[in-house]
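Deliverable D5.2: sample structural annotation.
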Amino acid sequence: MRRAEHGSCLLLMLVLALSSGAAQAFTIHYDLDRSESLRECDRFVYRGKDDEANECYRQQLQSGDLLERADAAAALGDIRQANKFYREASANSTDPAIKTHWASLYLQTHQTSDAEALFREALLYDRSWLPARIGLAEALSEGFEGQARETLRELTVEYPDNVHALILLARIELELQNLTDARGLLNRALAEVKAQNLPPLEIYALHAGADLLEGKSLKPWIERALQYNPQYGDIYAIPAHFYIITYRYREAVDLYQKAVAIDPDLATAHRDLGINQLRVNNIFAARYHLQKAYDLDPFDAQTINTLRLLDDLDKMRVSYVDVPSPDDPETIIGRVLIRLDSEDADALEPYVIDLAIQAVQLFTKRYDFALLRPMVVELYHDHDDFGVRTVSTPGIGLLGVTFGYLTAMDSPKARAAGSFHWGSTLWHEMAHVFTLEATNHKLPRWFSEGLSVYEEWNSGPLSDRELSIEVLTAIRDKQLLPVDALDQGFVRPSYNGQVQVSYMQAGLVCDFIAQRWGHASLVSMLKGFAQGQDTGEALSEAIGLDSKAFDALFEEYLMVRFGDLLDTLDDYLAEVRQLERSLQFDDWVSAEALARDLIRRYPERIGAGNPYQVLAAALQEQGNVDAAIEVLLDWHALGGHDPDALLQLIVDLREAGRLDEAVPVMESLNWVMPYGTDVHRWLGEHYLQQQEPELALREFNALVGMQVDDLASAYLGKAQAALQQDDPMTARRQVLYALETAPFYRPAQQLLLSLSAGE
């Protein structure tokens, strides 16, 4: 229901955005088809003379043609009137300029897909219409589409004097940290704005962004911009964007604060300041600036949804755990704040605490870094809320995201049961906290993601190392990027699926380095990045190879590891299709043979469509239950985590009396689907028998949190665990809870009598 409600709210918001007035961001019009009378008004804006500009636009609103009146209304923030004029102007016209300007209105009101559609309509009238071609590229670039970069490259060759195209491409190159290319484009644009009498403000701001990425002072560009326009807040806000894409959220907050100080009406800066205050867990400051942004522009989806998220945050339950040193339990090495939805909290909290303690203890040692402030962990049972939390983050299909000391992710309830391993996702994100903070966020995205994937594979709760067929195909087809260009696959992917391919490539790179030169080499690279080294320099210092030599050696490693499979990948996939056909006809003999061969060829394939589950089913059908169990145990040991298969394996092992082997499988199931009451009960009883009261309490706490039908037995389990911890007072309290739930529950009555007799 919540998902449907959000969709309805968003639809209503989009309708309202074009039926009311809204404040706009600071907009520079580079298109030369704009009327000269409007350009005169624009020049007041560019110099910070808002009163003169507004008077000029109002005059134009009374005297211009329909297109000029529409543009004037848009400049005045009267979106309803502007939309009305654009509609009227386009009614009986095939002028591409009208559709293009109308599309720009949609871009300004945060409706990129609608803008894209209108730009395409303009190009139907005139396929060579330059403002529409550039506008379409801009719309695509806002969605981090790799196609935008290629389009803009073509446009800057075809129209080398077009300032807008040069600036848009320069911004993309800066995001990819191709600083030399970006500087060249900006210098060309700067020469053109002087010749065309256009403002240099955005160019100054992007030059400041380049200085920021190079670790230089922004002051020279700031001074030039403020001399041109003392109220130009984007001279701080635009460079702040480059702090965000390099994970430096605290520094971004500082720049956004300066932006709103000199331009208090810059809605986008208030919005981004609020969002980034939230990312660093400054909730009260976040609410203030988001409310200010809403007052200025009440139709910005990011602002509205983040304010709604803040309302939901107020309802979440917050707890914490102090993490002791594994060497000295009296020494606290970190604190973890845990924020969970109330309906999830009791079931998940014991597991989150358990994993957080393990992660902090391990990563503190592995990366030689102690947390300097509390880590914040948030799990959202509504994926829409999590989606808002990740706003403005490039990437697709995200399960979790980390903003320095704060990490957020979907809870198991946010997605279909068993669709992802939430424990592995949480481990991945907590690794980010250490690697980001150990370098003050000065590491490339590929290395940060690579280390987290590497830790998933080597130290996390899931041993899954499967590469998807899409990733294997990319390796075979030579689609992997050079290591010093690997960030491009995350920030500006050039083909479908490249983000996921880049994740796996980054993980493989880190895994290869650790295998060949040791984990210490990864720590050395981390320290190199913290000192400002680039990828080539960090590699050279850590392992003695430059980027090109490393790429060649890495390719050899991949061929040794996967070469046989890659050479016969088409045959492998054909055999997979054969297996699918054998299942359609219940041909279990053929299915067994095919599944065994597929396992031999690629044993790491344990995800959806894996041959292990087919082989187990085939053996079951042929009456060989024990052999089926062994196959599924092999699958589980490699990281198999399909919840239905795990549950069946647990039942089979328990029926076979193999309880000790069932326990790790039950633990695995809870990291995928933690809401199975029988599994929690079985584990709790097992840990009581093994005199492990802490683990037993974790399970019985989860049962109490899920409000199971048999609450009395869960409270009784907590009482028995308390007794094993020599805590009779707590045991007595838990027994009383059990009897409050079920007054005639005999085991609880007997334990209460025993406790009373012992007083």
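Annotation notes: The longest strand covers residues 332-340. Residues 153 and 543 are 36 Å apart (CA to CA).
The annotation will be released with the project's public dataset once the embargo ends.
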